[in-house]
Amino acid sequence: MTPYEDGMVTISATYQGQTAEKTVKVEKRSYQYLAGFDLTADGLEGSDGEYTLHIPSGGTVETSATFNPENATYQHLIWQSMDPSVVRGGADGVIRAVSNGTADLVVYSYGRIHKKTIHVTVGGDAPINIPVESVSINGGDATMQASETKTLSATVSPSNATNKKVTWSTSNPMVASVDNSGTVTARKAGTVTIKATAGGKSASVTVTIEEAPPAPYASVKIDGGDFSIKAGETRQLTAKLLAADGTEVTSDDALTWRSSNTAVASVDANGLVTGVAKGTANITVTVGGKSDTVTVNVTGEAPVVHDTTVYYPAATYGANSTYLHYRI
C-alpha cells in the first residue's frame, strides 16, 4: 500500500468468496533517503563494508541491520549468495551454512546503492563466541548549539565480547548527524536520538540542539581606513568589533584577513600587510559573517641591496686590513 495523502482508507481482501475488511489511518510522510546501513552479528568481524564470518556446517547466524537515518523511507535489504551450495542469506537476516567451503554473501540496500560483503567460511567448529550483553553511551543526554561538534563514546559489555564494533546512527541527520566514530555535528535547532549498536544490542541518548546565540557585534571596522606604503614596507592593521549602537565590544571569534592581490600586497593571519610591488590591493577582514575592506596603494619597487667586498693589499695596509665590506 502506497499512501498518497492523509486520511482513512478501508482495505478489503477476498478469498474463495469470503471478504474481510480493515480500516486504517494513512499518513503520508516525506521521503527520507538512506545514507547507509551497517550489519552486526555474533562472530561477524570487519568494517567499511567488508566482513568475515566463520560458521560450523549446518549452523545459522542472525544479523541485525542499522539504517542511517533511522527514519529512512526504504529499509529493505537484498541478500545474494555467490555460492548458495555453501551459504545462503535471506530477507529475515539469518545466514544459513549449507555445506563446507567458502563463499561471499553480498547485502544490498534498496536500489543497490549501498552494499556490504561478508566472506563466509563454513566448516569445522566455529570460534568461541562471546555475545554482547549491553551497550551504554557515556555521558547521557546532551545539549549542543548549532554548528558545534561533540564526540560520544560507548561502552560494550562484557569487555571481552567477540563483536565490540559500535555502529552509530541518528534519527534526523537534518538536525544532527553522527559519523562512524561517534562525532555528532549539530545542524539546526531541534531534538534527535543518537543510537549506538553493537552485537545486536543498542543504547540511545537524546541530543537537543539550540540555536547559537547571536554575536555581540553588528559590524567590524578596520582602523585608519585606506593607506599607502612602499614596496618592502609593512603596516600593522587592527580592527574593532562594533555593536549596533556603534560602541566597541569584544568577542572570542577569530578575525580572518585576506588580500585581493598578493602580487601587490600580502597580509598575514594577524593583519600585518607587506608591500610587494607597485599597484593597489584590497585588504579585507572577516569575522562571524561580517567584513570590512580598505585599499592599500603600494608605491615604488623594493630597494635592491648589493653586498660588495673590496680587498686591499696586506703589504700596503697591514695584515689586519685585508678587506672592507659595505652595502650600496
From TrEMBL:
Gene3D superfamilies hit by this protein: 2.60.40.1080
InterPro entries reported for this sequence: Big_2 (IPR003343), Invasin/intimin_cell_adhesion (IPR008964)
Signal peptide: none
Residue intervals of the BIG2 domain: 131-208, 216-297
Domain of life, per lineage: Bacteria
Annotated TM spans: none
Pfam families on file: Big_2
Protein name (Swiss-Prot/TrEMBL): Bacterial Ig-like domain (Group 2)
